[in-house]
Write a structure and sequence with these properties.
It is built from 10 helices and 15 strands. The chain is globular. Bound molecules: pyridoxal-5'-phosphate.
């Protein structure tokens, strides 16, 4: 028996009837783009977050770009984020014309280190993108207080945090805006690409809506510059079905993570949940020496694992032009050498968790 890291078909089995009906309803509706299914999903997702405005777009990357553009970020601006995130966090910043600035992370939580943030803020800082990595949550309430009155916007990267809460409130509802990804592996995953911008402010959401569709307010008239980044009706209908199950799936992730917590030897270090956070448990991440060798041997034992992420972005050739030397973010650099993501998804069985734990214990 092999333990896989992800397979969307395991989840599909349980919701196949609902999905097939939703797809059929879209095909029968006569509208494939920006119709009733997208509007319904946007309403449902905003309500699930506790109110506000949701704008469906075609990826998490575009959700970040559009949120930053709507907030006025552009060439000459600096945007602070972390180097231990998925590359799209940083490519999104670049796509606005702004310059990414890397702040190191907290060694326990792997999240943006708010204590180090002030030394990265300059007169050109226009936005901060805190990343709720692995389903853990940055204290964005504290961050908002730090930057209040300085003309600095905060866009939460929620690609990995659907269902996470900070002091009882959903991740994504603290900043000026938030960006969600519905890439298939995410806690809420489409059957293809998808994303969503969220804002509590209606006027900001209107700007996001314009940018996703050529800058149009009315047909064939651009009020501003825009692009094409529409969520399609099929994905929206699929996401509406899956949203109904999301809380249950996140709960199951938490139960499985707790099983890892209880069964893993205390000598195996893990990334910690931040204070006041109910994590979404997108990934369960341990920290191990000789990670690559261990990962290979786990693979030989039939356990698939992941590494999120093996290279801090400031050390990638594609971002060498930013001129960040080795040692710019020592905590993120060390995490990149040690982190290992164990299998974690709602359809994983208790027995499979135990099998992963046994395999890991036999090697460390
Ligand atoms: C932290 C983070 N930000 C942004 C993204 C980009 O999302 P997408 O792949 O939907 O463009 C991802 C997904 O890979 C992510 O994990």
């Amino acid at each position: 028996m092999n333990v896989r890291s992800f397979d969307y078909r395991a989840q599909l089995t349980g919701i196949r009837g609902e999905i097939d009906a939703a797809i059929a309803a879209v095909l029968d509706s006569g509208t494939l783009v920006l119709g009733e299914a997208v509007q319904r999903f946007e309403r449902e997702f905003a309500a699930w977050l506790g109110g506000g405005h949701a704008v469906g777009v075609n990826s998490g990357t575009d959700a970040l770009v559009i949120a930053l553009l709507a907030l006025g970020v552009g060439p000459g601006d600096e945007v602070v984020t972390v180097p231990n995130t998925a590359v799209p966090t940083v490519s999104a910043i670049r796509m606005t014309g702004a310059t990414p600035v890397f702040c190191d992370v907290d060694p326990a939580t792997a999240l943006l280190d708010l204590a180090q943030l002030p030394r990265h803020l300059t007169g050109r800082t226009r936005a901060i993108v805190p990343v709720h990595l692995y389903g853990n949550v940055v204290d964005v309430a504290a961050l908002m207080a730090m930057v209040a009155g300085r003309g600095i916007a905060v866009v939460e990267d929620c690609a990995q945090s659907h269902g996470a809460r900070l002091r009882g409130r959903h991740a994504g509802t603290f900043g000026d805006a938030a960006a969600f990804s519905f890439y298939p592996t995410k806690n809420l995953g489409a059957y293809g690409d998808g994303g969503l911008c969220f804002a509590r402010d209606a006027a900001l959401a209107d700007q996001m809506r314009r940018i996703r569709m050529y800058g149009f307010a009315d047909a064939y008239y651009a009020e501003r510059e825009g692009r094409n980044s529409r969520l399609d009706e099929l994905q929206a209908a699929i996401l509406s079905v899956k949203l109904r199950h999301l809380d249950g799936w996140v709960e199951r992730r938490r139960t499985l993570a707790q099983r890892y917590d209880e069964r893993l030897a205390p000598t195996i270090a893990r990334v910690q949940t931040a204070a006041g956070v109910e994590p979404a448990r997108h990934l369960y991440v341990v920290r191990v020496p000789q990670r690559d060798e261990l990962r290979r041997r786990l693979g030989d034992l039939g356990v698939a694992t992941g590494v999120h992420y093996p290279t801090p972005i400031h050390r990638m050739r594609g971002y060498a032009f930013l001129g960040c030397a080795d040692g710019h973010a020592p905590v993120a650099e060390r995490l990149a050498r040690e982190v290992l993501s164990l299998p974690l998804y709602p359809e994983l069985t208790d027995a499979e968790v135990d099998r992963v734990v046994t395999a890991l214990h036999s090697l460390v």
